[in-house]
Design a protein that fits this description.
This protein is of the alpha/beta class. The chain folds into two domains: 2-196, Rossmann fold (3-Layer(aba) Sandwich); 213-369, 3-Layer(aba) Sandwich (Rossmann fold), CATH 3.40.50. The chain has 13 helices and 16 strands. It has helices spanning 26-34, 41-55, 70-75, 92-104, 116-126, 150-161, 177-181, 213-228, 242-251, 275-284, 312-318, 329-333, 345-351; strands at residues 2-8, 59-63, 81-82, 109-114, 132-136, 167-175, 187-196, 234-238, 261-264, 267-270, 288-293, 301-303, 323-326, 339-340, 353-360, 363-369. Helix 3 (70-75) links the parallel strand 2 and strand 3 (81-82). It is globular, with a radius of gyration of 20 Å.
Length: 370
């Protein structure tokens, strides 16, 4: 019988909807809790495990106590082998110890639920001694070790354990969260993990837009075309990214490069807002609201990676028809399709299909959303 190691980082992703761009460090976690953050990882972990249970593949599930996997496994109908010990509050040391213990027990694959910080901890613990798969539950997921969503992760697990998938090296990337909150991306390669290779269902490492004159001109042409069509009676929610920042540059207003801002009648109404602020403004505003986003380079995500402030509740309040996607020709060339992973299956299904993407001045393309 195949052995599957299963690790949950219970605090991963809590900083997303409250606009903190991560949850690394005790101070940030405490701030996230004060701002009303709720655990994200347990529900995402259960989503993966429920799907795994439905697939009916017989395996031995090995996990850590309580909030690090035991609770989720039992709730989803598994009878796991529980190893190790943890205290009242978990830390990266628990993740490292869990991964090492599972390697010693001879697991065939380790699945962890977390973000880039958790991927770093697993990489430090095991290097490439055992294959690994990440279930995306964090805020920043730049690494190439994650399935595109929890349900797909379950299918990858089964296909790999049946011997249908090869392995490849997946980059483990992470950013300096302090710099990230100030609007600077300081990404670093921390190592590689062995990951089951399924090109349609494993996300690539995040790739930034190239700093070239052609790329900048393309961004500004897209921005000018969009700004000329902005309506004075509409609230515009501008997501992160340099392509969206070009819209603010054309309007001659400030923009948080990595945050979510609100524009009304060509002026900045609110800067670096969280989910609560967005919902409050949407509720108070009687007119139309439009969400403006750009896909992540080499990944294609328009929701669910780095912009969790634009939550399923926000998207449902505004509606699919009021979403505008901007992307340069180069960025579109790096992705096979647009992707969504909001954390709400119904909202993901609502968004799937096809969307118009503005790719230049007066030029749009129809792109599939998966």
């Amino acid at each position: 019988m195949k052995k599957l190691g299963f690790i949950v980082n219970p605090i991963a992703g809590m900083g997303g909807r409250v606009g903190l761009k991560g949850t690394d460090g005790d101070e940030i976690l405490e701030l996230a809790i004060r701002l009303g953050a709720k655990p994200i990882a347990p529900e995402r972990a259960k989503e993966m495990l429920f799907e795994l249970k439905k697939l009916g593949f017989d395996l031995e599930l090995i996990t850590y106590p309580r909030v690090m996997g035991e609770f989720e496994a039992r709730e989803c109908g598994f009878n796991p082998v529980v190893i190790g010990e943890i205290g009242e509050r978990t830390s990266r040391d628990d993740t490292i110890r869990a991964a090492r213990d599972m390697v010693e027990l001879g697991v065939d694959l380790i699945v962890f639920c977390g973000g880039d910080g958790t991927a770093r901890d697993v990489c430090e613990a095991i290097d490439k001694r055992v294959p690994v798969l990440g279930v995306p539950t964090g805020v920043k997921m730049h690494s190439a070790v994650f399935a595109v969503n929890p349900r797909v992760a379950a299918r990858i697990v089964v296909d790999f354990l049946k011997g249908f998938l090869p392995l490849r090296d997946g980059e483990v990337m992470d950013v300096d969260e302090e710099a990230f909150r100030r609007g600077f991306v300081s990404a670093k390669l921390y190592g590689y993990l062995l990951v089951p290779y399924e090109p349609n269902f494993i996300q690539g490492a995040k790739a930034p837009s190239p700093q070239t004159d052609d790329e900048r001109e393309n961004q500004l042409a897209i921005a000018r075309y969009f700004v000329e069509r902005m309506d004075d009676d509409t609230i515009y929610i501008l997501g992160p990214g340099s392509t969206i920042k070009a819209v603010a540059d054309v309007l001659n207003i400030p923009k948080t490069l990595l945050g979510v801002d609100i524009v009304y009648r060509g002026k900045l109404l609110a800067s670096d807002v969280n989910e609560k602020k967005l919902l409050d403004i949407i509720k108070r505003f009687d007119g139309r609201c439009v969400i403006v986003v750009t896909p992540i380079g080499n990944q294609g995500f328009i929701f669910g990676r780095g912009n969790q402030q634009i939550s399923p509740e926000v998207i449902k309040s505004i509606g699919r028809d009021n979403i505008v996607v901007l992307a340069t020709r180069y960025k579109l060339s790096t992705i096979p399709c647009l992707r969504v992973d909001t954390g709400d299956v119904e909202v993901d299904d609502l968004l799937k299909g096809y969307m118009r993407v503005i790719v230049d001045y007066g030029e749009e393309k129809i792109v599939r959303v998966a």
